[in-house]
């Protein structure tokens, strides 16, 4: 099967004439693939109009469950780089590397040197300070691939980092009165966010969503909500709300969205939502829940 895929890749490159060297020419934009929507958003902000950024995971799809198709392999083979998170977020990355080769594209693992390897949680981007570091890595990658537009990439990165610094300050000020307080979340995606701003997550499900809790786990979380007078349970748009709805019915708690920014619906994209706007919405909902 691997040989078949490689043959298809080679044939497609010949037929399309889309070589990586041509992508930085005058008539072709640099093409960069990203592994899911958060990284697409960051890369598009840094690349601006100078880069064709292609998100691998389809709109509205939960990235933990996604696997690349043969079409995705062909797309990657004609890109200059694949920007991915790492830390187990992309369970398919080794499959891609073995299928199209370690040298077929430049693989950029953003969590390297940023993520805490002692944590099982790969959602490093929910701490805006980590996104500042990720933005620098993205800018460095684009500059290495397309030095002619280096000034544009640097300027775009600095503008985005200013927004991230303001976002961090807003979180720090708003969360300071609630340090040590707990929130109940649908899946264990908020370790970096909570650690940075001094709050505690209690997760219904583990790092990988859709792994339904056992009856004992359900009882523990229901008892925790009742004993701590938790008013809100956080859910995610891209995940089934079935389990948290059951817990809400048992406890009288209300459901409130906390978006881990793994992906957005087409409606949200059309409305101009992005990392900054989603994180401010998350902050409003966190304040509401913690005030309760």
Radius of gyration: 21 Å
Number of strands: 8
In whole angstroms, the N-to-C terminal distance is: 56 Å
| Count of alpha and pi helical runs | 11
Order of helices and strands: HEHEHEHEHHEHEHEHEHH
Structural class: alpha/beta
Strand percent estimate: 5-15%
Instruction: Please state the average pLDDT score.
Output: 88
The share of residues in helices is 40-55%
Q: Globular, elongated, flat, extended or rod-shaped: what is the shape?
A: globular
Q: State the major sheet.
A: 4 strands, parallel
Spatial ordering of strands, largest sheet: 2-1-3-4
Low-confidence stretches: 1-19, 21-27
Would you kindly provide a written description of the structure presented here, covering whatever features stand out?
- This protein has 292 residues and is α/β, with parallel strands linked by helices.
- It contains 11 helices and 8 strands.
- The longest helix has 26 residues, at 150-175.
- It is globular and about 60 Å long.
- 39% of the residues are buried.
- Mean pLDDT is 88; it is low at 1-19 and 21-27.
Layout: helices, strands, pairs:
Blueprint: H1 2-16, E1 30-34, H2 37-47, E2 51-55, H3 70-77, E3 81-84, H4 93-100, E4 106-109, H5 128-145, H6 150-175, E5 182-187, H7 191-197, E6 200-205, H8 215-227, E7 232-235, H9 242-251, E8 254-257, H10 266-270, H11 275-291
Parallel strand pairs: 1-2, 1-3, 3-4, 5-6, 5-7, 7-8
Helix pairs in contact: 1-3, 2-5, 2-6, 5-6, 6-11
């Amino acid at each position: 099967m691997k040989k078949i895929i490689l043959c298809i890749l080679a044939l497609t490159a010949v037929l399309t004439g889309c070589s990586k060297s041509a992508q930085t020419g005058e008539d072709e934009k640099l093409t960069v693939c990203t592994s899911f929507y958060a990284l697409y958003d960051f890369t598009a902000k840094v690349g601006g109009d100078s880069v064709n950024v292609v998100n691998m995971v389809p709109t509205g799809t939960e990235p933990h469950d996604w696997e690349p198709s043969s079409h995705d392999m062909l797309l990657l083979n004609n890109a200059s780089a694949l920007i991915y998170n790492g830390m187990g977020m992309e369970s398919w990355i080794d499959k891609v590397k073995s299928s199209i080769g370690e040298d077929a594209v430049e693989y950029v693992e953003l969590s390297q040197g940023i993520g805490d390897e002692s944590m099982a949680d790969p959602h490093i981007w929910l701490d805006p300070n980590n996104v500042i570091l990720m933005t620098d890595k993205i800018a460095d990658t684009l500059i290495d691939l397309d030095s002619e537009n280096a000034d544009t990439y640097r300027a775009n990165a600095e503008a985005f980092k200013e927004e991230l610094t303001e976002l961090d300050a807003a979180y720090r000020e708003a969360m300071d009165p609630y340090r040590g307080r707990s929130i109940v979340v649908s899946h264990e995606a908020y370790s970096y966010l909570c650690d940075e701003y001094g709050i505690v997550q209690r997760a219904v499900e583990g790092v990988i969503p859709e792994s339904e809790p056992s009856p004992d786990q359900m009882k523990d979380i229901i008892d925790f909500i009742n004993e701590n007078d938790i008013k809100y349970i956080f859910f995610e748009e891209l995940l089934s709300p079935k389990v948290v709805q059951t817990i809400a019915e048992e406890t009288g708690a209300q459901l409130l969205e906390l978006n881990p920014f793994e992906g957005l619906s087409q409606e949200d994209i059309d409305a101009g939502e992005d990392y900054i706007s989603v994180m401010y919405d998350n902050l409003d909902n966190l304040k509401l829940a913690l005030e309760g």
